[in-house]
Amino acid sequence: MDDIVIIQEAIKLVEEGVSVTLPVRGNSMLPFIIGDQESVVLQKPEQPKVGDVVLAWVDGYRYVIHRIIRVEGEKITLMGDGNLVYGEHCTIDEVKAMVTHVVTADGHTYYLYGWWRRCAVKIWWLLKPFRKYLLAIYRRL
User: Fold this and answer.
1) CB atoms within 10 A of CB 28
2) Chain centroid to CA 90: how far?
3) How far apart are the first and last CA of the chain?
4) CATH, residue 74
């Protein structure tokens, strides 16, 4: 089945109030979500705010799971934690789900917004000028 069809079915379930666990691909959310190894738990989005990780339809042609870095009225800017430059744009209506938990490769589930993770995200944001080097080291581990 095509990935976009699977995502659209997951969105339908989320809209009905069902939590959906979806595997993720790619490295754009490193180091907080490891693509091709971990899954995310999606829930119906509330009022999106800076720091939330969301599933969104961006730039009119694809879905991404990225962190909200700016909200200006109806406009939202997203960026993957593993990306080096600012990323995608969408509207509030294009935010289809909020990521609440991550399921690790060994089956453990953790809440994405606990105090420790929020602190780590803030530190990671401050380290943005050094991400290129930190990610290169991380990928070699």
Assistant:
1) 19
2) 14
3) 33
4) 2.10.109.10
The stretches of the chain forming alpha helices (DSSP H) are: 3-15, 115-126, 131-140
Question: What is the domain extent for residue 95?
Answer: 3-140
Residue 77 to residues 54, 82, 132, 141: CA-CA distances in angstroms? 11, 15, 21, 31
Q: Are strands 75-79 and 88-91 parallel, antiparallel or unpaired?
A: antiparallel
pLDDT in the model for residue 1 = 56
Q: List the single range of 28-37, 62-71, 81-90 with lowest mean pLDDT.
A: 81-90
Q: Are 89 and 75 in contact (CB under 8 A)?
A: yes
d(CA 7, CA 11) in angstroms, rounded, equals: 6
Domain count, the chain: 1
